[in-house]
């Protein structure tokens, strides 16, 4: 455990919950499908490296990221499983992608040719996954263009065409007609690529919602993000697989005040105590990822009892109306977690749980637990130290390269 002291607010990450969720999701898969765990955006705010290690121990096939930097973080941490760049990349990123042995999503020949050029002198193949747009409308080639493009990719020197994938924009809807249409379209692409002589590719389409709602969409891989972290992608899918929330956002009360009825609390003086009450100040605010818009409807949990947020959320603090509850400085307050689902806070802020989780910044320490004990702590200072060390290593490599010229 880190010797550095915790802030008065932190995020507890239950690695046992991550492992349990991975086991549960794997148990729901239709063979031969395997599980790719999406760990982009710092593992949805949970800590990408720690989540990756826990998920790998639970049998995850590989990991999905959005950026080359995210892939590099995993490789520096010793991750050897496949790492797939799900977002499209620029040609100038090709040398790093190849050097890090990342699988790259591509949708055109320009990016693939850059990866081919980077791979030829390296002696390491550029691994590609062809992205097909079956209805998301965001990125990917047209289904009709996929067979010719896949053949062209496979013929590039130094390239290994490893997979083909698409994405669902509405698999969390109750009405799955549109998503079933995408599944059928993607199956036609699969058949066309096989008909063109392209065998052994990994086909993947399902996100968390698609995994839970549509077994026929499992293909060779599924890509689960939010479900791995214990949040159902939609209320009606919550009973499909048992999931446990992995993040508990917590802070300690720093001040308690007894105030008379009518006392104004917070910026704008919008909240006024409806009676004599106890106001408790909590040192987490919107700079820590707690949504400013939530204050009119959100609650927090103190000693297992729910109390409402009182007044606008400040940058670094929020206040709660504890009524006549016996609250003292130092008491723990759960802002979300097992006692208060993050989905409720998201609804109060008119957003989604995904956004809240990924917006918890590094200045909020992560406390990783397993077996009921603290396993490790990661703070912003740790991240700075690591980044400084990596910058120093890169500078040393540059200087070494210049000296050898």
The SS-based structural class is alpha/beta
Portion in strands: 15-25%
Q: What is the β-strand count?
A: 20
- The value of Rg in angstroms is 24 Å
Number of helices: 12
What is the approximate shape? elongated
Describe the largest sheet.
10 strands, mixed
Give the % helix. 25-40%
Distance between the termini: 44 Å
Mean pLDDT: 94
**Poorly predicted residue ranges:** 396-405
Strand order of the largest sheet: 11-14-17-16-15-18-10-1-19-20
Short overview:
By secondary structure, the chain is α/β, with parallel strands linked by helices. Helices cover 31% and strands 24% of the residues. The protein contains twelve helices and 20 strands.
